[in-house]
Amino acid sequence: MTIDLQERPTPAAPAPVSAGAFSPQQLVASIPEALRKLDPRAQLRNPVMFVVWVGSVVVTVFAIIQPSVFSWLIALWLWITVLFANLAEAVAEGRGKAQAESLRRTKRETVARRLDGSGAEERVAGTDLRVGDLVVVEAGEPIPGDGDVVEGIATVDESAITGESAPVIREAGGDRSSVTGGTTVLSDRIVVRITTKPGETFVDRMIALVEGASRQKTPNEIALTILLAALTIIFLLAVVAVAPMSSYAGQQQSLTVLTALLVCLIPTTIGALLSAIGIAGMDRLVQRNVLATSGRAVEAAGDIDTLLLDKTGTITFGNRQATELLPVGGASLRELAEAARLSSLADQTPEGRSIVALCAREHGLPGEATAAEAVAEFVAFTAQTRMSGVDLTANLGGLSVRKGAASAVVRWTGAENREVDAIVDEISDGGGTPLVVAEAASPQGADARVLGVIRLSDVVKPGMRERFAELRAMGIRTVMITGDNPRTAKAIAAEAGVDDHLAEATPEDKMALIKKEQEGGRLVAMTGDGTNDAPALAQADVGVAMNTGTSAAKEAGNMVDLDSDPTKLIEIVEIGKQLLITRGALTTFSIANDLAKYFAILPAMFVAIYPSLGALNIMHLATPQSAILSAVIFNALIIVALIPLALRGVRYRPTTAANLLRRNLLIYGLGGVVTPFIGIFLIDLLVRLIPGI
Amino acid sequence: MSDTLAGLLQVGALVLLLALVWKPFGDYMARVYSSEKHWRVERALYRLVRVDASAEQRWSTYAAGVLGFSFVSIVLVYLLQRLQPFLPLGFGRGVNGDTVPAAMAFNTAVSFVTNTNWQSYVPETVLGDTVQMAGLTVQNFVSAAVGMAVAIALVRGFARSGTDRIGNFWVDLTRGTVRILLPISFVFAIVMVAMGVVMSLRSGVNITAVDGTQHTLPLAPAASQEAIKELGTNGGGIYNANSAHPFENPNALSNFLEIFLLLVIPVSLTRTFGTMVRNTRQGLVLVSVMGVIWAVFVALAWLSERFPNGAAAQAAGAAMEGKEVRLGIPSSILFGVSTTGTSTGAVNSTLDSYTGGAGGIAMLNMLLGEVAPGGVGAGIYGILVLAIIAVFLAGLMVGRTPEYLGKKLGRVQITTAAISILAMPTLVLIGAGLAIALPSTLNALNNGGEHGFSEVLYAYASAANNNGSAFAGITVTSDFFQSTLAIAMLFGRFVPILASLALAGSLAKQRRVPAGAGTLPTDGVLFGVLVGGTVLLVAALTFFPALALGPIAEALS
C-alpha cells in the first residue's frame, strides 16, 4: 500500500502497511493507564475481560483464605491477564493521544477581527464567534475558525493540519474557498464567513477522533462482541457443570482450578485486543492523513463493491501530454520534431512544455531555447488565432512555424489536406487531442506546408491498470467518471482498464449512478471536492472529501483526505478490509487455542479420578499444578505477544476471497491450534522449577 | 459372505439409494412449499379451522402459530393419557392399575409434541391403542411437519428479499403433512405389514412357548406408526424394545428400509434448500458435510464395536452384548449412528451396552446439535445456524462484513444464531450437572463411575436435542427426571425454533447483496470443511470436560 501511485515503481509488489513504530517503550509508558483501567466500571464494556476480572477477584480471595504457592501464582497471573488487556487498549489509545496533543497546540487562543454590519472591525475572542460572522484575516494571522473565504485570495499555511509545508491558495468563490481554524494566512488579506461553532470545528473533531473519546462500537464490532459473549456463556456453563460432575466422580475441584480453566477457555485473546484493533484501524487512517468521522465508515470501506473515480488527477495525470509525432506529406520525423519544438519553446502551458520535453527525450533536441533562438519573435496563442508559434529571424532561415488546432492551422496554410484530416480523426477517436504543425515563408502563411501532427493524450498514471486488476480480484468494480465526451472517455477507460465509465457526467448523473448501484445492494465509495459533489458524497457509503475542497463537501463526506489525493480511496478500502481481517483472524486464533488448553488442564484436573485420562497429557507437563499454571501463563503472554499484530493489522494482499480465507485459516486457524501446544510445553519447562508446583 | 462385507454393501446401498432420491425428492418438497395451488382436501381443512391460506405471515405471527399449535397439542396428548380409562381400546392399561400418572403424562406429551419421543413409560403395558393412534401417531406426523415448516421458513428468509413475510405456518404445516408425510407413510406402512410388522387392534395373543410356559404377546397397530416413526425422525416405538422388537423390525430388509426412511427427509431437505435459494450447490455442500460426519461416525463406532477393549467382548470376538444377533454389528451401528444423528432416537440395539467409544460417538452425534443430518427440518435449520457462525468468522477473515447467500450477517443475525446454538448446551450442562449433584440420582443409576455419568449425560443430551433415544440403564420415572427432562425437551425444541424464525424474519427483510470475487464462496469444498470444522469444534469445546468424565474415560480404560 503506497501513498502515491506516481512514486510507485512496481504496483504489483507487496505493499507493506506502515505500522507506525511500535516499541517496548510504548508498553512501559502505558502501564499507568493500564492500571487505571483495572476499575471494574471500565471492564464492564468488555464482557470477556469482565469475566476475567471477576475471576481474578475470586481467586485472590480464595488465595487469602487458603494460601498456597499455586493459588497465589494463579491469582497473580489472572491479574496480569487483565492488565495485559488494558495495556493493549492503552497503547492503542496512547498513539492517538500523542497526535491529539500536537493538534491541540494549534488551538491556541486567537483574537478574531470581526466585521459588524457597517463594515467596522471589532476585536473578539475566537471562542465568541458565531456561525455567519465575518472576520478579517491578514498575513501572519491565524484563522480563528472554520469557514469559507468570501472576499480576497491568500496563501495559507495548513501544515498544522496536513503536515504539508507547502502553502496552499484559498480564494473566494469556487472550490478552493474553505479554510480551517488554526491554520495561518501567509500573504494577503481575506474575509472569512464562519461556518462552524467554536468547539465543533474540524480540529476539535479531529482531536476527539484520534483520542478515541467519541469512539463507539461499530456494527461489526457489536456483532463480534455478541458472539464472544455467547462463547463466554457456553464456557462458563461448561466449567460450572464440571464441579458437580467431578464431585460425583470422586474429586472436588477447587475454585482456583475451575476459574483458571474458565479464563483459559473464554476468548480472552480477542477480547483483550478487540478495542485495540478498532482504535489502531482508525489510527492507520490518520497516519495516512485521512480522517474518518466514524469507525462505521472505516468498516464500510472494507465492504465497498463499487469505486467511483474521477478521471482527471486520479486515473490520469491532470494535464494532456505530447506522446507522439506523426509527420505528413514527405516531411521527416526530424523536421517535424524541430518545428514542433520551435513552436513550443515559448509556450509555457503544460501541453507546450510536454512537447519540448518529448522532442528533447526522443530526438535529442535542446530542452531550452538557445541564445540564437531566444531572440526570435514568438507568437502567443489567442482565442482568435487558436495557434501559437514563432517567426524566426533571417539568420535562422526566416521561416514562420505554427502549431494549433487542426482547423486553424489548415486555414493558415490555405489548403485542405486529406492526409492531415485522416490523422486528426484517428487521434480524436483514440481519445487524444491533435495539434497540427506547419511552416511557411511568412507569418501570413505564404508557401505554407504542413509538417505533421502532434498527438496529445491523457496519460494514464503508471500502475493504474495493475491496480484496477487487483481491485477486480478483490471483487471491487471501478467506474471512471469524466466530463469528457463518450468517445474520449471510452478510449481512456479502455487504456486504464476500469470496468465501466460515465462520460459527460454531471453531478446529477453521478448521484443517479450511486443510487442505482445501491439499489442493487452494492456499497459505493467516491471522492469529491466541489460543492456540487456534496449530495453524492453524502449518498455514497464512503465519501472521501478532499481537504482542498469546499466545506460543504467536507461536511457531506464521512472522511476527509488531508493530502487531497483521490487515489487514496484504494488504500482506505484496504485499511477497512485489514481491520475486519485482523478481528476475524485473532478470533479464530483465540478459539483454536482452546484445544491445547483442554489437553493441558483436563488431564491435570481428572487424572487423580481416572488415571487413564493421563493419556490426554500429550504435552507431558510435569504436574497437574504446573500444567494449569502454564496454560494460564500462556494465555496471558499471548495477549502481549499479539499487541503488535493488533496494532499493525494482519497483512493484506489484494486477492480473491477464497485465497485470503485459505491463507488466514492456515495461519490463524491451524497456527492457533499448534502454537499453544508448543508454548505451554515450553512454559511448563520453566514453571516446573518453581518450588511447590 | 462375511459380516464386514455385508455391512459395507448395506452402507453402499443406503448411500446410493439416498443419492438417487436426493434430487427428485428434494425438488418435490421445494415445489410443495412453493406452489401457489391448494389441494381440495387442504382447502377443506383451511375452511374448517378458518385460516386464510393466501395470507403470508410475519415471523412473529408464524412463531405464534408454531407455539400455539404445539401448546394445544401438548394439552390434548396430556388429556388423552389421563383420560385413558374412559377411552376405547384401552385394554385396562396404565401404571399400577390406574391411569397414566401426571408427571409421566406431561413428559410424554411434551416428548411427542417436540418430536423427541423420549419414552419414560413401557408402551405395551401403559398405553392403549386410542392414545397411541389419536395421540402419539398424530403427533408423529404434525411435530415432524412443524419442524419442516420452520426449516422452510428459514430457507425463505434466505431466498426472499425486501419483505417481512416468511410464509404461512398453517399452509406449511398442512402441506408437509398432506403432501409429504402421509403419502410416503401410507405406502411404507403397507410394505411393513408385508414384511411382517404387526397391525392389529387386538390387545394380544396368548401362546404356549416351546418350554410349555404361557405367554401373552401384546399386539398393536404397529406398522402405521412404524413408518412415520422413522420418516418423521420421531423414534417413539409402540413396543418398549423399539426397533429391536421383531414386531417392529422383523428382518434385515425392514431394518434397511427403516434406516432409509429416517434419513430420507433430512438428507433431501438440503436439496430443497438449494433449490429454493436457486443455488443447488449450496445444498450439496451442506449434505456433504452431513454425509462426511455421518460416515466417519459410522466407521469409528463400527471399529470400536468390532475391536472392543473389554475382556468378555474380546473373547466373543466383538461387542455383541445388547445387540440383536439377527441384525449383527454393522446393522446395529448403522441404525445407531443414523438414529442419533437424525434426532430420531429409535434403536435396534441397547446403546448402554455399546463400548465406550461407540457410546461416546452416539452421544457426540447428538451433542453436535443434531446436524448429521439432523431431524426433519431441525437438521437443516440447525446446520444453517452453525453455518452462519462459520461464515461470520470466515467472512471477517476475507475482509468484508460477512455475507451468507447474499445476506449480511450483523448484530441481529449473530444474536439469533447465538441464542439458537446456546440453548442446547445450556440445557444439557445444567441438567446433567444438577442431576448428578443430587443424591437421589445415584439410586436411579444401574451403573456407577464414568458409565453411570454417561447415562445421565446421555439422558439430557437426548432430551435437549429432541432425540429421544435412551442410553437405558437409568430409571427416569422420578418426578425430578420427568419434569427436568420435559423442560429440556421443551426449551431444546422451541428456543432454536423461535431464534430461527426471528433470524428468518431479519434475513427476509434484507436486500440481497450480489456475490463478487470479494465475497466468501459458500458452495465449495473449503466452505464445507469450514462448516464441518465449526460443527465439530463448537461441540468439542463445549462438551470436552463432560465427555472426558464419561465416555472418554471409559474408552481409555
UniProtKB/TrEMBL annotation, chain A:
<feature type="transmembrane region" description="Helical">
    <location>
        <begin position="46"/>
        <end position="65"/>
    </location>
</feature>
<feature type="domain" description="P-type ATPase A">
    <location>
        <begin position="112"/>
        <end position="211"/>
    </location>
</feature>
<feature type="binding site">
    <location>
        <position position="529"/>
    </location>
    <ligand>
        <name>Mg(2+)</name>
    </ligand>
</feature>
<feature type="transmembrane region" description="Helical">
    <location>
        <begin position="71"/>
        <end position="92"/>
    </location>
</feature>
<comment type="similarity">
    <text>Belongs to the cation transport ATPase (P-type) (TC 3.A.3) family. Type IA subfamily.</text>
</comment>
<dbReference type="InterPro" id="IPR044492">
    <property type="entry name" value="P_typ_ATPase_HD_dom"/>
</dbReference>
<keyword id="KW-0067">ATP-binding</keyword>
<dbReference type="Pfam" id="PF00702">
    <property type="entry name" value="Hydrolase"/>
</dbReference>
<feature type="transmembrane region" description="Helical">
    <location>
        <begin position="667"/>
        <end position="690"/>
    </location>
</feature>
<dbReference type="InterPro" id="IPR036412">
    <property type="entry name" value="HAD-like_sf"/>
</dbReference>
<comment type="function">
    <text>Part of the high-affinity ATP-driven potassium transport (or Kdp) system, which catalyzes the hydrolysis of ATP coupled with the electrogenic transport of potassium into the cytoplasm. This subunit is responsible for energy coupling to the transport system and for the release of the potassium ions to the cytoplasm.</text>
</comment>
<protein>
    <recommendedName>
        <fullName>Potassium-transporting ATPase ATP-binding subunit</fullName>
        <ecNumber>7.2.2.6</ecNumber>
    </recommendedName>
</protein>
<keyword id="KW-0633">Potassium transport</keyword>
<feature type="active site" description="4-aspartylphosphate intermediate">
    <location>
        <position position="310"/>
    </location>
</feature>
<feature type="binding site">
    <location>
        <position position="533"/>
    </location>
    <ligand>
        <name>Mg(2+)</name>
    </ligand>
</feature>
<keyword id="KW-1133">Transmembrane helix</keyword>
<dbReference type="InterPro" id="IPR059000">
    <property type="entry name" value="ATPase_P-type_domA"/>
</dbReference>
<keyword id="KW-0547">Nucleotide-binding</keyword>
<dbReference type="InterPro" id="IPR006391">
    <property type="entry name" value="P-type_ATPase_bsu_IA"/>
</dbReference>
<keyword id="KW-1278">Translocase</keyword>
<keyword id="KW-0812">Transmembrane</keyword>
<comment type="subunit">
    <text>The system is composed of three essential subunits: KdpA, KdpB and KdpC.</text>
</comment>
TrEMBL record, chain B:
<feature type="transmembrane region" description="Helical">
    <location>
        <begin position="141"/>
        <end position="159"/>
    </location>
</feature>
<dbReference type="Pfam" id="PF03814">
    <property type="entry name" value="KdpA"/>
</dbReference>
<keyword id="KW-0406">Ion transport</keyword>
<keyword id="KW-1133">Transmembrane helix</keyword>
<protein>
    <recommendedName>
        <fullName>Potassium-transporting ATPase potassium-binding subunit</fullName>
    </recommendedName>
</protein>
<feature type="transmembrane region" description="Helical">
    <location>
        <begin position="252"/>
        <end position="271"/>
    </location>
</feature>
<keyword id="KW-0813">Transport</keyword>
<feature type="transmembrane region" description="Helical">
    <location>
        <begin position="417"/>
        <end position="438"/>
    </location>
</feature>
<keyword id="KW-0812">Transmembrane</keyword>
<comment type="similarity">
    <text>Belongs to the KdpA family.</text>
</comment>
<keyword id="KW-0633">Potassium transport</keyword>
<comment type="function">
    <text>Part of the high-affinity ATP-driven potassium transport (or Kdp) system, which catalyzes the hydrolysis of ATP coupled with the electrogenic transport of potassium into the cytoplasm. This subunit binds the extracellular potassium ions and delivers the ions to the membrane domain of KdpB through an intramembrane tunnel.</text>
</comment>
<feature type="transmembrane region" description="Helical">
    <location>
        <begin position="283"/>
        <end position="303"/>
    </location>
</feature>
<feature type="transmembrane region" description="Helical">
    <location>
        <begin position="6"/>
        <end position="25"/>
    </location>
</feature>
<keyword id="KW-1003">Cell membrane</keyword>
<feature type="transmembrane region" description="Helical">
    <location>
        <begin position="59"/>
        <end position="80"/>
    </location>
</feature>
<feature type="transmembrane region" description="Helical">
    <location>
        <begin position="485"/>
        <end position="504"/>
    </location>
</feature>
<feature type="transmembrane region" description="Helical">
    <location>
        <begin position="525"/>
        <end position="548"/>
    </location>
</feature>
<dbReference type="InterPro" id="IPR004623">
    <property type="entry name" value="KdpA"/>
</dbReference>
<feature type="transmembrane region" description="Helical">
    <location>
        <begin position="180"/>
        <end position="201"/>
    </location>
</feature>
<keyword id="KW-0472">Membrane</keyword>
<comment type="subunit">
    <text>The system is composed of three essential subunits: KdpA, KdpB and KdpC.</text>
</comment>
